Amino acid sequence: MDRFLQKIHFSVNGQDTELMIHPEESLLDVLRDRLGLKGTKHGCGAGECGACTVLVDGLAVDSCIYPAGRLEGARVETIEGQEKEGRISSLQEAFIREGAVQCGFCTPGMIMSAKGLLDESPAPTREEIRRAISGNLCRCTGYKKIIRAVETAAGKGGDPRD
Ligand code: FES
Ligand code: FES
Q1: Total H helices, total E strands in the chain
Q2: How confident is the model at residue 1 (pLDDT cuts 50, 70, 90)?
Q3: Is the distance from CB of 8 to CB of 19 less than 8 angstroms?
Q4: Under DSSP, is residue 160 helix (H, G, I), strand (E, B) or coil?
Q5: What is the per-residue pLDDT across 56-114, written as a single tens digit (0 to 9) for each?
Q6: What is the best residue among 141, 144, 145 to mutate for testing ligand 2's pocket, by most ligand atoms within 8 Å of CB?
Q7: What are the φ/ψ torsions at residue 110 (nearest 5 degrees)?
Q8: What is the CB-side half-sphere exposure of residue 118 using CA atoms within 13 A?
Q9: N or C: which terminus of the chain carries fewer CB neighbours within 10 A?
């Protein structure tokens, strides 16, 4: 075996996956270039904008600086996994309903950060929501509608459908 390659096993949106990776590859490279999951966005590439946020074992991480070599046995969730049986999640519905999606570039990462929070804490305070999305930059909307969308999805201000 090429000594610069490493075999890893992990799951992506519930699907078992086995890949040969280069140690210097990032999780973002693996998702976008190797698995074709382009919903996770490449923004700064330096861990600063949050556009590339996915969940690894339930925790929000910047996939652009997350080494693929650490993925052995990990459970990765991306924006693509939020749709089930042709239906988007109640969190995604809340973003649409509250007008929290404009250019949409930050949205997948924002939704994954919010999902990580809601999975851990189904009824977060506004401060907890702010903290959870503090690493996700949005240059268009300001954050009011985004925070409101997360509150709606948490059942505080709307009509979540599941
Ligand atoms: Fe990963 Fe900006 S692209 S933090
Ligand atoms: Fe977030 Fe535009 S909607 S950067």
Answers
A1: 5, 5
A2: low
A3: yes
A4: coil
A5: 999 999 999 999 999 999 999 999 999 999 999 999 999 999 999 988 899 999 999 99
A6: 141
A7: -65, -45
A8: 20
A9: N
Q: Which ligand is nearest to the CA of 110?
A: 2
Report the nearest atom of ligand 1 relative to the CA of 52. 1
Residues 144-160 have pLDDT tens digits of 999 999 999 998 654 44
> DSSP letter at 26?
B
Rounded distance between C-alpha atoms, residue 115 and residue 126, angstroms: 15
Give the residue whose CA is nearest to atom 4 of ligand 1.
Answer: 47
What ligand 1 atom has the least distance to the C-alpha of 64? 1
Question: What is the full DSSP assignment across 55-98?
Answer: EETTEEEEGGGSBGGG-TT-EEE-GGGG-BTTB--HHHHHHHHT
Question: How confident is the model at residue 140, as a pLDDT?
Answer: 82
